[in-house]
Target: Regulatory protein RecX
Amino acid sequence: MTAEPTRRPRKPKKTALMTAVDLLARQEHSEKKLREKLLRKGYADDEVQQAIGRLVEKHYLNDADACARQFEFLYHESRSSVRQICVKLMQRGFGSSLVKACIPADTFAREKAAALRVLALKFKPAADRQKMMANLYSKGFDSSAIRAAVEEFQQAEEDE
Model:
């Protein structure tokens, strides 16, 4: 006589709404990314749509606010160019028009400061000017901000 293995009762499967709330509790998502994650987890399209509709209705999911918050954070806390920030947010599922609406009218001073931080981390002031400019260009910085940052970076060396 062999003993039957004891079976544990299965946990009831979470609904799409419960899973969506869990995902949002960990990290802010766009509607698009949240929809993709729920569909990948195997939820039916109509259940996903209902869950997202409910979250929007209750103001737990708002792409415009989330995009603005994430843009603001990246704009002030990172050394990424505005172009890189825009690409990153679009990859996170925010629409192009939402992202572009977040861009301030004048970004030159911020772009120059971010470019200077990149230069200070990667180069010595005596480094080749073209290499510095090419590096900043590849990171999406505006050409006028690149020129100003490289000039200021190299000028600081001459002043010392």
